[in-house]
Amino acid sequence: MAMAVAWSSSISPYTFINANTKRCSAISQATDLPITTTSSTIRPAVILPGLGNNTNDYEKLALILKGYGVPTAIAIVSRIDWLRNAAGLLDSNYWRGTLRPRPVLDWYLERIDEAVSEAKELAQGSPITSLSLLLNFRIFFYYVAVNL
């Protein structure tokens, strides 16, 4: 079972997503949030596929979120895309533990940028939320640091 943490660009409770291949469920840590919300309180979610996963692996999660009125944008990733990360193995900095995210992860950062742009269109000026696994969460923090 994979555990993901949601991050948003403004202060809000964290949301944990339990996902496995058979079912997905969203569980909010906040207990004081209303069950029904208006469209002005729901922010779009950006879903970042985890290492080795593809966009289709998150379609069910997107449908569940849509059922709660949360529009989603999933970064477009195929399983074969992840092989690009192997290029880092050829860099001596990898073996010294000093490899930087660029240029090895440029392809993924571009996919994040596309998904974030789509979510911003859906948000119409309101904040967005990122749903990702831990490694991708760290990559998203890097993306935010570079792009803000």
TrEMBL record:
GO cellular component assignments: chloroplast
UniProt name for this protein: Uncharacterized protein
Organism: Nicotiana attenuata
